[in-house]
Amino acid sequence: SADTASSYLYLITFLHLLHIIFTLFYLLKLVIGSFTGVINENNTITMRMGASFWHFLGILWLYLLLFLLFIH
Fold first, then answer.
1. Which of 46, 53, 48 is nearest to 32 (CA)?
2. Which of 1, 24, 47, 67 is least surrounded, with the fewest CB atoms within 10 Å of its CB?
3. Nearest to residue 22, comparing CAs of 53, 46, 43?
4. Is residue 50 within 8 Å of 27, Cβ to Cβ?
5. Contact 30, 39 (CB under 8 A)
6. How many CB atoms lie within 10 A of CB 30?
């Protein structure tokens, strides 16, 4: 019989890869927008959303690290 755990590993790895690609494109869009003047002092909602997203990811990874360390 096939092992379902390996299927979940591939699924989680693929979703993580998609998440990384999406994040890199979004951050690249923010950097280009800030250098070209699309994002300025009057239009900061995109930059705020990017900063909130980035900090959420940092907190999430810290939580996951602590969870996996202390799960035993």
1. 46
2. 1
3. 53
4. yes
5. yes
6. 19
